Amino acid sequence: MKEGRIDLLIIGGGPIGLACALEAQKAGLSYLVVEKGCLVNSLYRYPLNMTFFSTSERLEIGGIPFVSNNAKPTRAESLEYYRRVADSAKIRMKLFEEVTAIIPADGYYTVQTSKTHYEAENIVIATGFYDIPNLMNVPGEDLPKVTHYYRDPHYYAGQKVVVVGANNSAVDAALETYRKGAEVTMVIREGNIGKRVKYWVKPDIENRVEEGSIKAFFYSTIHAIHDHSVDIKTPDGIVSIDNDFVIAATGYQPNFSFLEKVGIALSKDWKRYPAYNEKTMETNLQGIYLAGVVCGGMDTHVWFIENSREHAKKIVHHIQNKNSYTF
């Protein structure tokens, strides 16, 4: 190999990117992780008090035990775990460095970043889907009072808060801000709380709505957002309520523009599934692989840490044995 060229460049320093690095390390491949934010950046941006749905052993990578105080680990425990994994394994990575382009060369790729460029024989894109929120596309969505990233309930104490959505993020935001003294109204597109809401939380939110502690508009959407109010489109027409803050827990999506810029084929339907081989995780571009939740396109409830950490093994095995694969 030419001086400075690596076997595998991994874009994304989340749990699955780290899993890929551990597998590459185990296989004796030269590798580098490039992450545009901090270590496990998406997990860092989760709400401060978040508890995972999965148990700790299902979040483990590289066979390294994850010990938590309770069966369901917290955000803080997960950050500590993945940091210790990265430190103990001495994973090679560049943080706060964004990949801006992948350029094919003669049998390898040049990867341009916000700071420099690298040459790599193979590339893994493990960028997740937490960076780009699904917008409501309504007037006023760009006001400072609107956020797609809920962090801490104390900020909303004593305020009139609208929470948009009915799944885990929305329910956590509604319950936590309510318990810090906010006047909470939920705006829910469907007729009920989401089926995927954590089983120990679902009865809590349903009871708060039923007793009227948290008001909920079902079969409803945001029509417009104003400085001191919100217009809600309900089955009975437009309802306007006083409002200080809007937490739009409307979900997120992968960076499709980056995938398209690279040349990865996407399905034509709304789910925009990226093309890849399920046995090897290789995309329509030779030597470029996908790993983790990015594989699901807009269907962001398909892949999680627990069922996509195996992608790392598939990728490294294929890199080591490309000539022996038949399909």
Automatic annotation (TrEMBL):
GO MF, one example: flavin adenine dinucleotide binding
Identification of the protein by name: Uncharacterized protein
Superkingdom per UniProt: Bacteria
Alphabetic keyword roster: Oxidoreductase
InterPro entries, per database record: Auxin_biosynth/cation_transpt, Bdr, FAD/NAD-bd_sf
PANTHER family, alphabetized: BACILLIREDOXIN REDUCTASE BDR, FLAVIN-BINDING MONOOXYGENASE-LIKE PROTEIN (AFU_ORTHOLOGUE AFUA_4G09220)
